[in-house]
Write a structure and sequence with these properties.
The complex is a heterodimer of chains A (436) and B (815). Chain A has 436 residues and is α+β, with helices and mostly antiparallel strands. Chain A contains 16 helices and 17 strands. Chain A has helices at 27-30, 50-60, 68-73, 101-106, 109-120, 158-167, 182-186, 188-195, 204-218, 281-292, 297-306, 316-320, 344-348, 352-378, 394-407, 423-433; strands spanning 79-84, 88-96, 123-124, 128-130, 136-141, 144-154, 177-180, 199-202, 226-230, 239-242, 251-256, 260-265, 271-277, 314-315, 334-336, 382-386, 413-417. Chain A is globular and about 75 Å long. The two termini of chain A are 21 Å apart. Chain B is an alpha/beta fold and 815 residues long. In chain B, the strands form five sheets. A seven-stranded mixed β-sheet of chain B has the order 5-4-1-2-3-16-15, sandwiched between helices. In chain B, strands 7-6-14-13-8-9-10 form a seven-stranded mixed β-sheet, with helices on one face. In chain B, helix 4 (143-157) packs across helix 11. In chain B, 40% of the residues lie in helices and 18% in strands. Classes of the chains: A alpha+beta (436), B alpha/beta (815).
């Protein structure tokens, strides 16, 4: 399986029993107050530049098993990849676990402080979260072994993040920060002026695809990166099953963030964006906030899981009393989303949970339907759904799995990836390590 | 998907308070049959078939051998009663349904109708009421089937049915030529949900897809989010809102445009994306606007995906979400343009609201086989399209209490396009689209209004024995003046406004008030007069040398064409100077070189081999046909060319009708052996055009004529007169030789064309050389290229997350 060019460098050691942590129920519950001011202030830049000394250290280390060429091409720590989206900032951080005593000694305080801060916490500030359950342990990257951490925080908290970066004197490390997503462009100046950092801006779709293919290739088993739902049409028997994406091409990659992008991927470098829709995760949350007064994605999902969309939507059977046989439409199909909400009487009869559920179903089905049309137009029968809209959102995943299966009469397979929203950030990190 | 079956209950209170002028709305009920009704969420559409009795002018030859010969007149004019079929469609608010049913019941006599076909989501709700009031059994028909049937019917019978919507252009509506073959097409019906139907033929259609995000979603979500209950109000809100307050745009994510990918910053990346992260109150207007964009874009995108998958480029949009609402037509148009990069245009239909009723009617009228006839929109009885812009006509947008009507006349003949058109699908009969040309529109509207007194006078004079003619003529005046006023405000009411449509509307109004042929007596007198000069004129021509004669023949046609009661400049002369003669007309003619002058090429051609067969579309009675056209025809016959004389089926102004021409030709034949031989040997034939217009639409001609043209392998088309060769067909390209001859008898038009009054247009054209047959392979390659372009067109550029269009703000200040 030669998924990409990095295969040779990368191994994952799965010897350790890596039980994934349960997904966090609510970001808010898990948040621990964390004042950056409490951090050790030892990050003052030393003369000569810590970056230079770190590089020096690595070069002078005797008895190294790593090749010189690898060493030379390897960027100095810290290794980050960042994806600044419309709603969330996704950050991946590689924590080297193979630091020699000598390295340890030479490592500048700033670098240590960053490592310690990121790895010893699971929450940062008011809104930052480390998705511990996604952590990839003993990953071999560029000849170094370590753990890959997955961190996210809302884009509106980027100023706080920049403040922290500034406090930690990140700029003194003289490392490039690879960033993708629209925010890499929008906030480039802020990074420079507020944190004295020069961003290396990367195309988000390049990063996304690189990240997907890389992650899928390094995570070999248990839990498998890629999975699907067996028996999607039967809620009783519907079950999540691992899927080996050995032969991925061609595939339709559907990234559901705030909005949705749909790509047809023929190889790691040969892909095109087929289309997109503005009805995405941002629309779900935005509408839910307006309809129910909720304020977080988790809250909205929680509500949706308790609601009933058929009170809100008008179904085929509400109009035709049953199936619309003339056109092969089953009675349970939604004829009009929110179509029951035209009378005040019915509007009063629905709960917030019902509305949240209907919103979720509407957005999800619409994505499903556009995806299906693209798959037909591109003649592709494998669809991989990624993006943070699917985070802890089994409801939508099962709905997508079912919609793909039903409307294509079993021709289309919906696949999902565990690291849902982080592939752009992973791709950015890879760009740092292996500039293309 | 389905029509909405909910009505706001409050609207029922209007029911009894309204006073209708129902006799002007539900017309011709006496003989009405085959009722059909389509009840939607707020509007009811009623359809019925009826017959109209009206007067027609007929001519009959006197038997000159009998005693009748005492009359010095050539033929006799009689006015007869004729019964023709007409379809009536009326649209009104559901609130009036009971009042309307009562009225119908009271006036419905002579009917053996037992059944009423019904469709639409509201049909079941009013079933009992209809059955009780009318005593007819309600027979429900499938909605989608009705819709498609109705759509086929209007596309086939109404030339300017489809339009594209351009909000900020001079005219909002750009009417499209209907392709002679209307299939295949895609109909996107946006009711409460969306149905996407592929129509391949009259009976073959398939729902290929749809979406639950439709008009009901806009309405339902809109009601929840803004506490605004009515659909129209929601649209009103949306038209005042700013979507950028709630939608996350590309620039909100990227800080600006995503230049490297060609995505502008104004594109929507995530609908409602900002309301998730911003903790503030949003205005109802902004919410409604974001919702409208979200839904329109989504529907547009799906429509494009389906169009692409099924390789269809004609996509019509309908359903209550669209129905005449400028706001939604605009957003859908924008979305389609965005997703296809202009490759596919969103098409809308003038009579979209009637499709269901028309279809239900057709289902019920199958035994009358309405589809075997051609039908024509009656401009006198139809309301026409209203302005979509509330600014232009605020009153008309307030629908309450207004009734909209569509009347279609069954035409005696099946109309098809002339096989000699170079490209029937791109043929536009009219030379100037007055909808797009405000100056010309202003002039012609004035011109027709100015001429109205004269027309009224003429109409009264044509029926001296009928004292009530004065009153009727006055009604005609009011009707036509009202139409002109309507057209001034809504030039697009009946499709593109043209001189032809103004003339046709006048003819329809005259007929409506039983003035079938105001010029019959004038035509008769002038025909008599001209016939008396025929032999002398022919003798004079025959005395000329060949080349002189050719020129004299052409000048004869042109001089004859000066006699035209349709042109005010001429009718004034003819009115004040009855002695104005043929020789005088020749003197008025412009000297060569004419304004448009390809006479030399024509002369060269005449030196060559004769044509196989010439089709001559003739114009006026009198001097024109007898002293101008006949000698010209005679010369063609003498050269060995067969001649098909094509004249109007029914009267229009002083144009010679087929009935008159039969008599005239026989009379000429009696004096002229060449004409006589032509008739006898079937080398001279008279056919009717199927038209009763002073202009000529080569796309809608009597099928018989086209058969004759095909059988005889016509290789020359001659079109004569201002109405047929200048107002229409001036730019028409034919696949054979063509000759367009006219004298410009309107000073304004003359000036516009760079000439002066009585300037001559003599336009002889050869067909475009047949394209050098390219090897098949090349053609295929071309096709492939097109496909590639199509691909590019559908895909938006790579890059930003879900990007959808939103009209730029400056584009729609007051949507």
């Amino acid at each position: 399986m030669a998924l990409n060019g990095h295969r040779g460098d990368i191994e994952v050691n799965n010897d350790e029993d890596e039980t994934p942590t349960k997904p966090l129920r609510s970001a808010r519950e898990e948040m621990t107050p964390d004042d950056p001011a409490d951090e050790p202030a030892g990050g003052t830049a030393t003369t000569g530049g810590p970056g230079a000394s770190a590089r020096g250290a690595s070069l002078h280390r005797p008895g190294t098993t790593r090749s010189d060429s690898l060493r030379r091409s390897r960027p100095p720590f810290p290794w980050f990849g960042m994806d600044i989206g419309g709603t969330l900032v996704k950050l991946v951080y590689f924590e080297p676990k193979d630091i020699t005593a000598e390295e340890e000694q030479e490592e500048v305080e700033n670098l240590k402080s960053i490592r310690r801060y990121l790895t010893s916490n699971t929450a940062y500030g008011q809104t930052g979260i480390r998705d511990v359950y996604l952590e990839l342990k003993d990953l071999s990257l560029c000849g170094r072994t370590g753990n890959l951490h997955f961190i996210r925080f809302p884009t509106y908290d980027l100023p706080a993040f920049l403040q922290m970066v500034r406090n930690k004197h990140f700029s003194s490390l003289h490392t490039a920060l690879c960033a993708t997503g629209g925010g890499a462009y929008k906030f480039e100046t802020d990074f420079r002026t507020m944190a004295d950092l020069q961003l290396q801006k990367l195309d988000e779709l390049d990063c996304l695809i690189r990240g997907v293919l890389f992650t899928e290739s390094v995570v070999v088993s248990d839990p498998s990166e890629c999975y699907y739902f067996e028996n999607p049409s039967d809620p009783e028997r519907c079950e999540q099953k691992p899927y080996g994406l050995q032969d991925p091409y061609p595939l339709l990659l559907v990234n559901i963030g705030s909005g949705v992008s749909i790509m047809a991927v023929y190889s790691e470098t040969d892909y095109k964006r087929v289309t997109g829709t503005s009805l995405g995760g941002g629309t779900f949350l935005g509408l839910c906030c307006l309809l129910t007064g909720c304020s977080t994605f988790e809250e909205a999902l929680e509500m949706a899981s308790e609601g009933e969309s058929t009170r809100v939507d008008k179904l085929v059977r509400d109009i035709y009393g049953g199936d619309y046989e003339r056109f092969g439409l089953p009675g349970w199909a939604v004829a009009s989303s929110f179509g029951n909400m035209l009378t005040s009487e019915k509007r009063e009869g629905v709960s917030k949970a019902d509305l949240a559920r209907a919103t979720l179903v509407t957005i999800t089905n619409n994505i499903g339907s556009i995806t299906r049309m693209c798959a037909l137009n591109e003649n592709i029968n494998k669809v991989v759904f990624v993006g943070n809209f699917l985070r802890v959102n089994t409801l939508s995943m099962k709905l997508l799995a079912y919609a793909m299966d039903y409307w294509s009469k079993g021709q289309l397979k919906a696949l999902f990836l565990r690291h849902e929203g982080y592939f752009g950030a992973v791709g950015a990190l890879l760009e740092l390590l292996h500039p293309s | 998907m389905a029509e909405l079956d909910r009505v706001e209950k409050s609207s029922h209170s209007l029911d009894k308070s309204i006073t209708l002028p129902p006799d002007e709305i539900f017309r011709n009920l006496e003989n009405a049959k085959r009722f059909a009704i389509d009840i939607g969420g707020s509007l009811t559409k009623l359809a019925y078939y009826s017959t109209v009795q009206h007067k027609v002018a007929k001519v009959r030859s006197f038997d000159h051998t009998a005693q009748e010969a005492a009359s010095d007149k050539l033929y006799e004019i009689s006015v007869q009663e004729e019964i023709t079929a007409r379809l009536h469609f009326i649209k009104f608010e559901n609130a009036y349904i009971e009042t309307c049913l009562d009225f119908i019941k009271d006036h419905l006599v002579n009917t053996d109708t037992k059944l009423i076909k019904a469709t639409g989501g509201g049909a079941h709700k009013f079933k009992d009421l209809i059955e009780k009031k009318l005593g007819l059994k309600v027979d429900k028909e499938d909605e989608m089937t009705c819709l498609i049937r109705g759509c086929n019917f209007v596309l086939r019978n109404i030339p300017h049915e489809a339009f594209i919507f351009t909000k900020h252009a001079d005219s909002e509506f750009r009417f499209q030529n209907t392709h002679p073959d209307i299939f295949p097409y895609l109909l996107v019906n946006i009711g409460s949900g969306v149905s996407i139907i592929k129509v391949e033929s009259e009976d073959k259609f398939e729902r290929i897809g749809g979406s639950s995000i439709g008009g009901g979603t806009f309405w339902g979500l809109g009601a929840l989010l803004t506490k605004t209950k009515r659909f129209d109000e929601l649209l009103q809100l949306a038209s005042k809102g700013q979507h950028t307050n709630l939608d996350m745009l590309v620039k909100d994510i990227y800080g600006g445009s995503y230049g490297s990918l060609g995505l502008t910053g104004d594109l929507i990346a995530s609908s409602f994306g900002k309301s998730a992260t911003t903790d503030k109150e949003f205005s109802k207007e902004d919410i409604a606007k974001s919702l409208l964009h979200m839904i329109s874009n989504d529907i547009g995108q799906l429509a494009c995906l389906y169009a692409r998958l099924h390789r269809l480029t004609r996509v019509y949009f309908g359903g209550f979400f669209i129905r005449g609402h400028p706001v939604t037509m605009h957003t859908i148009t924008y979305s389609i343009n965005f997703f296809t990069k202009g490759e596919v245009q969103a098409l809308f239909l003038r009579h979209e609201g009637y499709l269901g009723a028309i279809g239900a009617f057709l289902k019920g009228a199958e035994e009358d086989n309405p589809n075997q006839y051609s039908w024509g929109e009656n401009y006198a009885g139809s309301s026409g399209l209203m302005s979509a812009s509330p600014d232009i006509n605020p009153m008309q947008r307030a629908r309450s209490g207004t009734f909209d009507m569509l009347e279609m006349d069954r035409l005696e003949r099946k109309l098809v396009n002339l096989p000699l058109l170079e490209d029937p699908s791109s043929y536009v009969p009219d030379t100037v689209d007055l909808t797009e040309d405000p100056l010309a529109r202003e002039y012609w509207l004035f011109c027709f209004e100015d001429a109205l007194d004269g027309v009224v006078k003429r109409a009264v004079a044509s029926q001296p024995d009928l004292p009530e003619a004065v009153e009727r003529a006055e009604k005609f005046r009011q009707k036509y003046r009202h139409k002109l006023q309507t057209l001034r405000q809504q030039p697009f009411a009946y499709g593109s406004l043209t001189v032809r449509s103004l003339l046709d509307t006048r003819e329809h109004c005259l007929n409506e008030f039983n003035f079938p042929d105001p010029y019959s007596k004038i035509k008769q007198r002038e025909n008599d007069l001209a016939l008396r000069c025929y032999q002398k004129a022919v003798a004079a021509l025959d005395a000329l040398g060949w080349e002189e004669k050719q020129f004299a023949l052409v000048r004869g046609v042109l001089a004859g064409n000066v006699f035209d009661w349709g042109a005010k400049a001429v009718s004034d002369v003819l009115e004040t100077d009855p002695e104005f003669g043929f020789e005088e007309a020749k003197r008025q003619l412009e000297e060569r070189p004419w304004l448009v002058d390809s006479y030399d090429q024509w002369l060269q051609r005449m030196k060559g081999p004769p044509h196989k067969c010439a089709v001559f579309f003739v114009d006026n009675s009198g001097m024109d046909i007898i002293l101008g056209v006949m000698p010209f025809v005679r010369e063609l016959l003498r050269r060995g060319t067969e001649v098909v004389l094509a004249s109007n089926s029914s009267p229009a102004l002083n144009d010679v009708t087929n009935g008159e021409l039969q008599i005239l030709t026989e009379t000429v034949a009696a004096m002229d052996p060449i004409i006589q031989a032509g008739l006898k040997e079937d080398r001279l034939v008279l056919v009717q055009t199927g038209s009763s217009s002073p202009c000529l639409d080569l796309g809608r001609l009597d099928k018989m004529l086209t058969i004759v043209v095909r059988e005889r392998k016509a290789d020359l088309v001659v079109i004569e007169g201002m109405g047929r060769a200048i107002h229409t067909n001036y730019f028409a390209r034919l696949s054979c030789e063509s000759l367009k001859m006219a004298v410009i008898k309107n000073p304004w038009l003359a000036e516009r064309l760079g000439g002066k009054l009585f300037s001559v247009v003599f336009k002889y054209e050869l067909p475009a050389p047949p394209p050098a047959a390219p090897p098949m392979k090349e053609e295929e390659e071309e096709e492939e290229e097109e496909e590639e372009e199509e691909e590019e067109a559908v895909f938006s550029p790579q890059g930003a997350p879900g990007v959808q269009p939103a009209p730029l703000r400056r584009e729609c200040p007051e949507l």
